[in-house]
Amino acid sequence: MTYLITPSKLYAYLQCPHRPWRDLYGPQEEKIKETNPFVEMLWEKGVQHEKDVIGGIGAILDLSNPDKDTQFARTLEAMRNKTPLIYHGYIRYNDLAGEPDLLRLMPDGTYLPIDIKSGRGLEGVSEEEENPGKPKKHYAVQLALYAEVLIALGFAKDKMGIIYDIDHNETLYELGKPMGVRNHATWWDLYQETKNEVRHLLNNEARNEPALSGACKLCPWYDSCKGWCTKNHDLTTLFYLGRSIRGTLAHDLELKTVEELRDLDIAIAMGKKAGNKSFLRGIGEPTLKKLQTRAKVLADIKKPVVNGEIHFPQVDYELYFDIEDDPTQSFVYLHGVYERSPNGSRFIPFVAKEKTPEAEEQAWKGFISYLKNLPQDKWCLYYYSHHEVTTYHRMQKQYPDVILLEELDYLLSPERAIDLYSQYILKMTDWPLYSYSLKDIAKYLGFSWRDISPSGALSIQWFNEYLKDKNPTKLRRIIDYNEDDCKATMVIKDYLEKSK
Ligand code: SF4
After folding, report:
1. Distance (Å, rounded) from C-alpha 211 to C-alpha 219?
2. Looking at domain 317-498, which of 3.30.870, 3.30.420, 3.40.50, 1.25.40 is its CATH number?
3. Where are the domains of the chain?
4. Which atom of ligand 1 is nearest to the CA of 219?
5. Protein residue with least CA distance to atom 7, ligand 1
6. Block mean pLDDT (10 aa), the chain, length 500
7. Is the model's pTM score more than 0.85?
8. Is the C-beta atom of 16 inside 6 A of ligand 1?
């Protein structure tokens, strides 16, 4: 049987090179059937954006059709008839197939494929640093597949495509161009390589192993792959050791398991590296030592190790803080703080109950005034990862009337605002865990969330549902979830403090 190579398979491969194989040949009974709520939300957002775009475009020929043979025949006919704009045509050639959102007739009679995306057209765009950004790999390979099929069918000449993005901008992807200033390989080369790898995996002529990474938590194979990695003592069960480092360690040192890394003689490995630039490329002695320590913690010590003494400020008010936001829409709907003081403990939520800039500003203003009204120099704010601070800087630009930048920087200065993850967990601790997320570490320490399925992604879903029906139970669920995140932060801080 020949399996079709489609844009979604190329995308899956770039997210995780194991995914195309596992989707076909993995133990299907272990695959989670429910769609991850965050993935579903992104999908819905994409569908809505596409509807909005198409609604405003005017005359198009809509060829959407569940019967692919009919859809293909009608697409060929429409292109032969020089239809100006085709929506959801279906094109295929040999084992390549795809459904570009739009096919646009060009003045020379050829067709240009266009995909509508609910993200930005380029990555790394920064107005402040005047960085124009560069093409996204997963967009480039998808457009390249359309271009190859159109060229093969005689409806295109150039290796090109367009991304129509969330801001309604069109970005031309010139796929024959080099990927970077120093990287002379072209986007087309990347596509060819990706396509060939995917072809081998789909036909079961090649196989690779699961590797735990950030992408896994959104993947329906998460439990299955995690089980495989744990059972095989795979190196990716170590925090921060991903597929690429695992590949290098396996190739250069023949290491496959956590125990083999634990027993590695680093001095001998470094001796081999001296004078051989390609040996252990990108992995220096400090990294190897760090990873070996984690291997020992996971294989032998089996409990967290805190390196050095940790001293936190001794203040009257300890504030454990977390925000709930929808990053896809840059909207913050809750600032929660769990306050611990000589007067006792309490949780204070500052909520935006409408999805409007006014409501968002008001909620943020409430939280900022709360901070400003605390006794000066007698409080300390704890949070987990830089997301909150980064978001607050964005909000300051959006709502400058709430607080001046200098004041915000004062409130969030490191002596009174402590990022437990970046300042302590990453730098001074090792855990027998592959993920150092708030949930993974707090659960390891025995903390449990009241909600049966706590997650930031679900919180966004609950908020969107609340906006529709204003059901207070849904809002309560969000607030309780946020309170538990704040308490989990407190549990981690207390653990670190006791470990002196
Ligand atoms: S769980 Fe992780 S390793 Fe497994 S297929 Fe998904 S992304 Fe890949």
Report:
1. 12
2. 3.30.420
3. 7-202, 233-302, 317-498
4. 6
5. 216
6. 93 96 96 84 86 87 95 98 97 98 97 94 72 90 98 97 93 95 93 98 95 91 96 96 96 97 96 91 95 96 93 96 90 97 96 96 98 94 94 95 96 94 96 94 96 84 91 95 97 92
7. yes
8. yes
